[in-house]
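My hope is that you will study the protein record below before we discuss the fold together.
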Amino acid sequence: MPRDLKKNSSLIAVPNPAGALDPADRLNNKTAGEVCPICFGAGMEIVPGKGARACSCQTQNAHSTHLQKARLPLRYADCHFHNYKPANDSQVKAFHYASRLAMEFPAVEQGLLLMGTVGVGKTHLAVSILKGLTERGFGCLFYEFGSLLKQIQDSYNSHTQTSELSVLSPVLNAEILVLDEVGASKPTDWVRDTMAHIINTRYNDRKLTIFTTNYLDERPAGREETLEDRIGVRLRSRLFEMCKTVILTGEDYRRSFNTPAKKNPLR
């Protein structure tokens, strides 16, 4: 083989060139089960005159896998930081805390406890954190607390193929956990024991956790219970150390859905 041809036959890895056309548009046209139209399943794409680099499909596939494992409900598929519309200063501050956590993890010491009445954007921000971290390659898990309790209860049924351990293990071990609607379930001894097991385990293992709750620390007029009433003094104390408490105020944005003339932004 001529020396020049031999020299040119070797490939070198090159980064994505600045300003290059992003091939994601072609990837988005690929349906499930089809081979990537860029690398044809090889995982590497050729840059003419420069060499080879990891194909864009590899990053996209990894993110999709992480997001599937996160168990995110379809309801929140469109939630992200870019379409969160804060309506007041408390929501602006909450947005900054949430986005900073998503950017700075793992160099953070606390998670977030997002507190506020219904419809102020707590879950939207929690999901945005989860999506931001999955995009960065971290393993996340989402659970609405009531649904988690139901799955655990179902595991006690002898006809099911699950066990309490198989349900709880991912929750206890997830790198990042979003636990939505804490305090919403009736605080029976079993509910509090289950919650204590989850919180204490993640507390001891220093696992990052983001909580949302409709219950506040102060007892507002017309409301009988606080978060402490719902989860107990000990667990509320743990949450003070595990998470930064962020209070969101405002009106329930869902009420605007009944106003035909007003198109409500996602929050």
In short: The two ends are 64 Å apart (CA to CA). Residues 1-32 have pLDDT under 50 and may be disordered. The chain has two domains: 3-66, 70-258.
